[in-house]
Amino acid sequence: MFQGSIVALITPMTTEGEVDWVALDRLVDFHLEHETDAIVAAGTTGEPSTLSFAEHFDVIRRVIERVKGRIPVIAGTGANNTAEAVELTRYAAKVGADYCLSATPYYNKPTQEGLYQHYKAIAEASDLPIILYNVPGRTAVDMHNETVLRLTQVDNIVALKDATGDLERGKALIDAVAGTDFRIYSGDDATACELILMGAHGDISVTANVAPNQMHEMCVAALKGDAARAHQINTRLMPLHTGLFVESSPIPVKWAVQAMGLVEGGIRLPLTPLSDKYHPTVREALQLAGVLEA
Question: Which terminus in the chain has less CB density within 10 A, N or C?
Answer without folding.
Answer: C
